Amino acid sequence: MAAVRTGKGGVTGSDTDIVIDGIRFAGRAFLAPMAGITDMPFRRIVQRFGAAATVSEMIASANLSTGQGDMVRKLQPAGDAPHVVQIAGNETRWMVRGVELALDTGAQIIDINMGCPSKKVTNGYAGSALMRVPDRALRLVEAVVEASSVPVTLKMRLGWDEESLNGAEIARRAVEAGVRMISVHARTRQQFYKGRARWHLVREIVEAVSVPVLVNGDIANMEDAELALDRSGAAGVMIGRAAQGRPWIVGRINRALGRAPAPISDGGRGSTIPSGDELLGLIGEHYDAILSHYGRDLGVRVARKHLRWYLEAMQVVLDGTQRRQLLTCGQPDRVMDMMARYLGRGVVAAPDHTCSGLEGLSELEPVA
């Protein structure tokens, strides 16, 4: 085991675990918050496979404060791991109110979003746009820390662009304000998700603070995780898009990095990737959970992207007709019948003409 790095106020990081203010994470590999993806059904499955922790979707504090239903739904906890709620915004009053509402649902950690690159978010000077106005960003951080009775963490990027790589300075000031852990997507906002994540640039942030830092971006397997940790010096990793269609990957990396327990879902084996009937059962469970969480009409739409990702993860190729039928079908039983046939063959399968689709559905929305 490597030497334990100890920060202020009971914050520690080591080769096997991360602890902040008495909250111990079971390992060092975390699921990143992803808008429209890390909802309660997905987080629950990822946690069951052994992730150290998962983070809610980004929740707009202003919309949450006015009772917007989809924001309230995002607050729901997903399992036994620490309940981490991420909030976003650019006004102190709404961020403080968001903290209060998150605490009411049992949030054990509040995460501040300073990393989302979406134009819809940054045009309102929220998300990664806050890195352009550090003083304003720090006022929000101070207000959230003051309002929260639980630890506050921060997710950020390297900076806004190549001319303003100010991540280390913002991180240092955030920690001085009371932030207990920082996760860094190793790109600038202007990069969005283009090019390669520059893990080595996270090292400056790690060296600027006394709390655990998680490195994020382009971590898809154990080799990536080890290289990212080596280059960044971070205490742990945060995995995002690689978990799409592979909810087991965070847990596999977590176990490889340390002492995380084997997942309940594989009988304690801790090493196998679901396949065959086991995989189909997992997909069916996930699909049913989505329908239950959102209701049938919205649920079939939400599930489309996950079905596509599962097929891509298993390298199943569908032609245009098959793809359209699967992803627009409004009959859950028929959807699972098609998934069973496609996954069973692992190749292009015959079209299914028995499912009446939901008219007017676009095939898929782009991933955030």
Span between termini: 37 Å
- What structural class is derived from the secondary structure elements? alpha/beta
Number of helices: 14
- Average pLDDT for all residues: 85
What is the C-alpha radius of gyration, as a whole number of Å? 20 Å
Largest sheet: 9 strands, parallel
The total of beta strands comes to 13
User: Can you give the helix content as a percent range?
Assistant: 40-55%
Strand order of the largest sheet: 6-5-13-12-11-10-9-8-7
CATH fold-level topology of the largest domain:
TIM Barrel
CATH superfamily of the largest domain, called what? Aldolase class I
Q: How many separate domains?
A: 2
Order of helices and strands: EEEEEHEEHHEHEHHEHEHEHEHHHHH
CATH classification class of the largest domain: Alpha Beta
CATH-defined architecture of the largest domain: Alpha-Beta Barrel
Q: Strand portion, in percent?
A: 5-15%
Task: Report on this structure.
- With 368 residues, this protein is of the alpha/beta class.
- It folds into two domains: 5-266, TIM Barrel; 276-345.
- Helices cover 40% and strands 13% of the residues.
- The longest helix is centred in the last third of the chain and has 19 residues, at 276-294.
- It is globular and about 55 Å long.
- The two termini are 37 Å apart.
- 48% of the residues are buried.
